[in-house]
Amino acid sequence: MTVWKLLVLVFLSVFPFHTAASGDRGRLPSIVMILADDLGYGELGCYGQPLIQTPCLDRMAAEGLRFTRFYAGATVCAPSRSVLMTGQHHGRTRVRGNAGAANPAAQALRDEDLTVAELLQSAGYRTALFGKWGLGDVGAAASGLPGRQGFDEFFGYLNQQHAHNHFPAFLWENERRVQLRNKVREVGDTGAGYAEEAVEYADDLFAERSLRFVRENRDRPFFLLWSLVTPHANNERTRELKNGAHVPDFGPYADRDWPEQDRGHAAMITRLDAHVGRLLAQLRELGLEQNTLVLFSSDNGPHNESGHSPARFQPAGPFSGLKRSLTDGGIRVPCLAWWPGTIAAGGVSERAAYFGDLMATAAELAGCPAPPDIDSISLLPVLQGRAEQAQRHEFLYWEFHEGGFRQACLYAERWKAIRRLGGRLQLFDTASDVAEKTDVSADYPEIAARVTFWLDGARTISPDWIPREK
Fold first, then answer.
1. What is the model's pLDDT at position 441?
2. pLDDT band at 3 (very low <50, low <70, confident <90, very high)
3. pTM
4. Largest alpha-carbon pair distance within the chain?
5. pLDDT of 16 higher than 50
6. How far is residue 180's CA from residue 156's CA, in Å, rounded to a whole number?
7. Is 214 a residue whose pLDDT tops 80?
8. Start-to-end CA span in the chain (Å)
9. In Å, how far are 133, 207, 227 from 213, measured between CA atoms?
10. Does 22 have pLDDT greater than 60?
11. Using one digit for the tens of pLDDT, what is the confidence trace for 387-416?
12. Is the pLDDT of residue 375 over 70?
């Protein structure tokens, strides 16, 4: 553990915490972060989706705040979650790509990293993660196991390949392997594969654990990271059976004249929506709704990996690209904030914000200083209707290592720059070109020079994540 991290945690453990943010005088507000997996900006009704039914999330938006310029930490899962956990942007956070079995330690948080879970745990919160992790595993990546990164409770998947299978043979309870009743045809040795006898659906199990955790901790402040695995595809099932949208039933889409893959994809999202509705209802039943901030978002843009038809659902909305793209289709995601009594109903924020802002927001809610060396701005003023008092990001940053190193940044909440290593900078004016179709770098040389200078110095050197042309 680094000296500065030790000092931060010791300080937090003795700091006399108090915050005026709480709706329940004298008690710190609880925080729930609900994360979908590969859910696109345009896949919820409140963001314009006409075919997939999401009544609970639409109601959450109507009762709370909807962000229209909210960004994931990265365009794929592991680095996006690393940004969420550390409050550092993609060029400075620990995990900057999906390393997988080739270099598992490169996809693991380490002891010197300070996570939002550790910060809140030190501030007296009970912490839990249910669902997909992807930032640590048994063996060479053990430094990143959830229990070693601030979570009191964990139940779910440790690595993202295992999380492809929605009906897995096993899950992890803290650091103990728990067998399920599904009969799985295994693919590789990570737990990936697909169920030939599908009995227990992982997201249903995570919903039950989340509800139980909230109920058991209703008398104390808690932090819950509920990390669903829908609507991510089961890639192995897609390769073998041409259908990666494995779901218990097709729900309201059973009679639609659509391919099974499309019905399954839509049913995943509607089932996810119902689970979120159950949590919000429980918070009301327990009288916790006015002292609990609930955030909902997605780890990156939508996928095209289940054999379904993105053309039917237009999952990225008006934006270009999908998961693995640095255009906004790959990184701009839905984000809803719900906190009755604190967040005014029916609000819409066009402010540019991103995953990294959870750290500073959580610190302010817990009444403690934000850690040093982060790229995070508290959204609490925005949530409380004091947006004019909130800071703004000058730049947001992303990178991507697969198929050759690429970088992107958003400058002044308007100018989007993308470049490939050794290539020419492209500049887009998102105020008039949300689809990022027209390169205006020649028309705005001063802006192009500024973002080039910033991209050149945005990232810190990581021996695990060296930029390469291919």
1. 98
2. low
3. 0.96
4. 61
5. no
6. 12
7. yes
8. 35
9. 18, 10, 14
10. no
11. 999 999 999 999 999 999 999 999 999 999
12. yes
> In the chain, pLDDT over 90 holds for what percent of residues?
93
Quote the pLDDT of residue 1: 58
Nearest CA-CA partner of 47 in 344, 408, 421, 302? 302
Distances (CA, A) of 364 to 19, 119, 271: 8, 11, 33
Average pLDDT over residues 250-257: 98
pLDDT, mean over the chain? 95
Question: 216 is written with which tokens?
Answer: 């058991």
Residue type, 128: A
Query: Which pair of tokens denotes residue 49?
Result: 């989706």
Answer whether 98's CB lies under 8 Å from 78's CB: yes
- Tokens 């999202």 found at: 269
CATH number for 3-394 (one of 3.40.50.620, 3.40.190.10, 1.50.10.20, 3.40.720.10): it is 3.40.720.10
pLDDT of residue 11: 62
Q: How confident is the model at residue 12 (pLDDT cuts 50, 70, 90)?
A: low
What are the start and end residues of each CATH 3.40.720.10 domain in the chain? 3-394
